């Protein structure tokens, strides 16, 4: 990390970081989208005007504001406006629907809710009214504005909880993860340090800005003073023109993104799909070693993969100068300040500034941390002699599809209510494109016809389940495998059986 970035990483709050970067490089671009460019100084100025508008609406330091917005320049401006006010913000992934959104609004006790109106054919405003949300306002491209002179002083405490992110664990309902400005700055600093980027780089955000990766990545832009291209709707090959137009040097997201870029490259072998690209980087899902080798060989760029979660946005990251063996088979090394402990039984536990403060539910917080203050990740792994982390499995019954956590129990609970389902187990199976795909294994119900995948997914859609959680594979069996004591379903046997049919 260079001297300027190292100095900026000590910023107490996110707003402090924005203000300091705007002073250093006011006219350099930070966000690029279509024909629009936002400089660091414009980000600061627009966020202050928006903060004044929000203040006029009644938003104060500590006010809980939920927002469900796509990856857009206005979304970043709104988020930093809330940071300027010292509000508590609760980002909600745009493709979440009634079940998840309603839970997040209730549990966070949000006093305001920013939505994009009708977006990609879905009326978010109508859903908000249906859920009885408070203070609903459209923030797609018409942000509130006002005179910054009315604003109170910016927050100076970076260790107060000002962020509530949502993640699905082993229970059917999401968990509200509590972060501070300092924990997010620490996470972004970890990423920036590992990737060894410079002010000459051009990044890309092809993931939901409402994901924990949003501030993680934006902190990196603020530390190093380089821009990123934002994609409101990401799809290949359509997005390639924007990558080429802006000369993107660093791209990625997760295993699914690596596979998509590789598929595009294979259409014209030997012709660089993005001529300026030098690095793919990401995390959020398992990375098969063979995928690493294929990317390096066919795309002609380096690939660095890392390990993070909503609770700790950056834990380890591969560095461009790591050995081929470490880049292909490990999740990289932790940065300074991140402690990794491998507990008895192989569970990975974490302690450091980037670790969240816990959960909205105090009982979940008490369960999540051990007696020494280490976060129990539920992941299994080991550390190599060089300090690289190798993940070997998960204790949690969570499926990670395209970098997003999916609770198997949530899907199981919904499917179990169908009369044509005797019992059901939902599992994640290895998938080269998605990291994992969702497979429902259904036990036949006596006297009922076998359900079809189309019927099950239509049922789940009607129940308000998010599209990314829908099963992509259905297997119908006479009986699910169970143990001999409590008759618990043995999911590992199902994974062994159906992993042989990887698609």
From TrEMBL:
Domain AMP-binding enzyme C-terminal: 410-483
Keyword Ligase carried by entry: yes
UniProtKB keywords: Ligase
A Pfam family that the UniProt record links to this protein: AMP-binding
Molecular function terms, GO-annotated: medium-chain fatty acid-CoA ligase activity
The name this protein goes by in its record: Cyclohexanecarboxylate-CoA ligase
Stretches assigned to coiled coil: none
Claim: Disulfide bond is one of the keywords in the record: no
UniProt organism field: Streptomyces griseoruber
Matches recorded under InterPro entries: AMP-bd_C, AMP-bd_C_sf, AMP-binding_CS, AMP-dep_synth/lig_dom, ANL_N_sf
